[in-house]
Amino acid sequence: MSLREAFKRAWWFGAAFSFVGLAAPAALASDPLAGDAIAPPLNINIALDYEEFQDAGTFGATHGANTTEDTHISDIVTVLRYVRTFSLSGMEVGLQAYVPIVNFLGTQQLGIPDIPAPAPGLPAFGAGKANLSNHSGFAQPNFGAFAFPINDPATGTYLAVGPWVSPPVSSFNKNYVLNPAQDVWTEELEAGFRTTVLGRPTTTNVAIEVWGEAYFYGNNSKSEDVSPEVTANSIPAIYSLLGVHNPLANQSGVPATFREQPGAELRVYVPYEFAPAMGAYFAPGLYQSFGGKQTYELRDGAVVDSGNRTNETQLRFILASFLSPTLQVMAIGEYDVAAHGQPLNRNFELRFAKFF
Known about the structure:
56% strand; elongated; 23 strands; 2 helices; mainly beta; four-stranded antiparallel sheet; 14-stranded antiparallel sheet; Porin
């Protein structure tokens, strides 16, 4: 087998990010992409660089209508990752690690369709916005191991399983609404299955690839429930007589313990390899997440629902090819069709993988 033939079937086992949303998720989750369930060559190093631009002009309410007016949430996420494969008792296994770097772009804000009146009989403040203070920096590092109980290149059938762990080490700053991470222990169990359904792995073919993940989170006892600064676009004249001016509410924070309930994710891809000699394929996909309710327990014991959930439905499209026997480039487009308690993202990502 040539180097190109060996490397073009290489596998990455879980990419490396999810949206850094309002109040941020507990930790950046692994994000397997189409082709990640294919076992790579043994005894090889893989260095990967992910560059993702995320942008949202709509924020999905937990219940009711989405927020669209004057909403802007945007960032760039860079992920650096290393994978090493080897053999253990005749089974292919490996170790890996990655760290994300999050940079928020410009002013982050949510549109508010209508700010209600502060008291009965007074007019509403009208439309406005919530300014989201943000803090860029390193998200939590992630460390993983993996194994291939099923590894059959002849039929293109694979089963990949493995755990991830993410310690609470990041650029988290409790004084900001948006953070790179929530600084809590995160454990993840991940499994992916792939098989060829049309054609053969060495020729033009169609496969199906399914991934499932389960997440479990610790708590951050040194967090804060941070409320954003709220302003109105046009305050009725009567309020000037009462001495009411923007901002209507300054940012404030209350010491609290952050908690996140367990969550789960499902990904389904249908890769079509149209140029096997180059390892070139495209793959439509569907992503769905569940659970992950985030709350703050205040010092007096009161529990505040942040409104954040990991409840998202996303369409994906992936295009990938090898540019040389040891260099692969992948482009990924992602489009949220529904999200609850988080932004509806329109993402574009490039991934570069070097084998050595």
